[in-house]
Predict the structure.
Amino acid sequence: MKYVIGVDLGTSAVKMLLVNQNGAVIQEVSKGYPLIQEKSGYSEQNPEDWVVQTVAGLKELIKGFDGNPDDIEGISFSGQMHGLVLLDQELNVLRNAILWNDTRTTVECQEIYHVVGEERLLHITKNPALEGFTLPKILWVKKHEPEIFEKAERFVLPKDYVRYRLTGMLHMEYSDAAGTLLLNVSEKQWSKEICELFGLKQSLCPPLVESHEKVGTIQEEVAGETGLSASTAVFAGGADNACGAIGAGILEDGKTLCSIGTSGVVLSYEPNRDKDYGGKVHYFNHAVADAYYTMGVTLAAGYSLTWFKDVFAADEPFEALLEDVGSVDIGSGGLLFTPYLVGERTPYADANIRASFIGMDSSHERKHFVRAVLEGITLSLNESIAIFRKNGKNIDTVISIGGGAKSETWLQIQADIFNAQIVRLNSEQGPGMGAAMLAAYGCGWFESLKACADQFLQVDKTFTPIPENVVKYQELYRIYKDIYSTTKDTNHQLAAFRK
């Protein structure tokens, strides 16, 4: 039996899956690392933490493997998107990585629109200028930390840096490059025009490769430390959302994914590059060669639930927090939650908006607040589904992965709010499984990623919308949509009082 490893470099932890040729997860390991938040809106990490924990996780994975490490043929990566890692001439890290959920770059986004033009930017990059993307971060460092920027010779995204440290080879693949605002998404090449407009040398951008391409092998030193064979092939991998899509079988037109991790994503496969959503949702290169996907994002999806638990139920497991949610009626007793803890992306692109509980009264218990959080996250994700449907997409089946697939009550809430059949897979590994599948395909086990998905992925359970619930949630969604406009000015004024 042969094996591959999928590495998913997330925001809070790196997760590793050892997967055999049948698609069975033989072993998994997770290693956490801290988030650095010096000010409101700032979100950074030390790239060395990623490397240390990835190596430690691989060592633990191999130690618990009772087979021959030589039978592990390949390893590939999924990673958090948009994060900026700046490297000097010797490819050493110049500063902490600025992450996808960092919102300090509002001024830089305005500058991008002023210099490039909104229409031209959408034509080249297929995406609006948002604080989470990489180019605004580069411009922020250039403006506020010029002494660091002068030393910068290359930038990469988080998983690319970890892969470099394991192989000694530096690349970026298209699905992650598409989230930088520096890639011409249709032409699959760095935009010379955008680089020149901002005085960026094009050599700052690393060489581009396909997600399934072999980019090297494990360095001898890493092999000695982890127990992996130095002959283990390393493949480029993909952005977490692209890998999550592969790991859920979103490999043909009509397939839609709901992924609830730290952020929440609604993602739909696009077979070509020419559909126009006017920048209302993201349009990225897929980790499948010559394919694309459109995507709406809720910035604080699973993070909203984690935040609530950490603040109000720190000593309890998630299972205990959720156990009474099914006893609460739709609408949580007249309580609504908007998950804008760190701003919001789709459809508002507003870094200053903040979360609200609306409708609190003395009859509400903790279970009402928990259900309101679940409903608020799902109502936010429904705003992306509404955009897809308005643009002619038929969404009747959604594959749900991540934290939102672990609770059957939450899966039924998704079915009722989305008014679509929700499918849970046997494997809920998401991006890590997608990375493993890219390695399996790269190793030549399958003739296509779809053939790999047919072998690796099986349906566990399906949840069907309940008509009377759909009607109630449509009314709740109408009320929910009003909250943003009615709290926007208040939140923008309160920004002056934040840390």
User: Anything to note?
Assistant: Residues 108 and 185 are 21 Å apart (CA to CA). The mean pLDDT is 94. The longest helix spans residues 467-494.
